[in-house]
């Protein structure tokens, strides 16, 4: 009976009966287009940025763009720092920061190349340190891996196009991610919306396919960190939207938080108030932790805890 009950609760969870209601939550996308270097890359970066702008508009986000001002083309760093300082000071609402361009690494510090002075991972970490908003940083540049170590913290999702600063070649991950972020084809669990995790997995696998078909050694390996431990998780650890490998020393694997974030929310997700969504996210984290420790629990204990979490999730959706 318990298993049947859980299945019924899952049906309630997946197919709530009420219609969505819009909330007043203000979400922001700060889109940074870095120095192109060559005209070919300028066109490429602009096309990727356009896809992000279209997705953000569809998702109802306020969009701020850095890197297209022709009046002061060599002065992007001060403007970026000012914009981020203002956005970090706001108390709530998701903040997405997307960096499109090239990066460098000198063996100690990684930088994202802006028009004019560049911004280092450490400088970006400093300006973002006071942020209390749910924060997502996506660095699509080469040599972006060290940004994870600098930026990782609880309540944040960090995605980089490379796993280290030594992957210096031009990356393709950013283009695939820009296409995937609002693409229904990337919706792996078929819930009517594409999460950041799903877009990350979809883009990573397209990068892998590109290098295989070209007969070339892959020079980029994207990483995702969303649990604040700074260790990050590659896409090949996942089957569907769930990680199937375990981290060393009992560390939790990334992915749960990224799967709760959607640039373009589906109808059901739009119907959740920020408070209800926060509670739902917390319960889903508990559910993930419970599954991870299933082997160490007695069967009855596991299913009792599972039932309790699923019941509360179902009740949250009933309140919509």
Structure description:
Strands 2-1-3-7-8-9 form a 6-stranded mixed β-sheet, with helices on both faces. The protein is globular and about 65 Å long. Strand 7, helix 5 and strand 8 form a beta-alpha-beta unit. The N terminus is likely disordered. The protein is α/β, with parallel strands linked by helices. 38% of the residues are buried. It contains 10 helices and 11 strands. The two termini are 27 Å apart. Helix 1 runs parallel beside helix 10, helix 2 packs parallel to helix 6 and helix 9 runs antiparallel to helix 10. The protein folds into 2 domains: 243 residues, Rossmann fold (3-Layer(aba) Sandwich); 49 residues.
Largest β sheet strand count, sense and barrel closure? 6 strands, mixed
Q: What is Rg? A: 20 Å
- In total, the number of domains comes to 2
What class, by secondary structure content? alpha/beta
Query: What would the average pLDDT be, to the nearest integer?
Result: 89
Would you identify the regions where 5 or more consecutive residues have pLDDT less than 50?
Answer: 1-23
Q: Count the strands?
A: 11
- CATH architecture designation of the largest domain: 3-Layer(aba) Sandwich
Distance between the termini: 27 Å
Sketch the topology as an H/E string, one letter per element: HEHEHEEEEHEHEHHEEEHHH
The CATH topology label of the largest domain is Rossmann fold
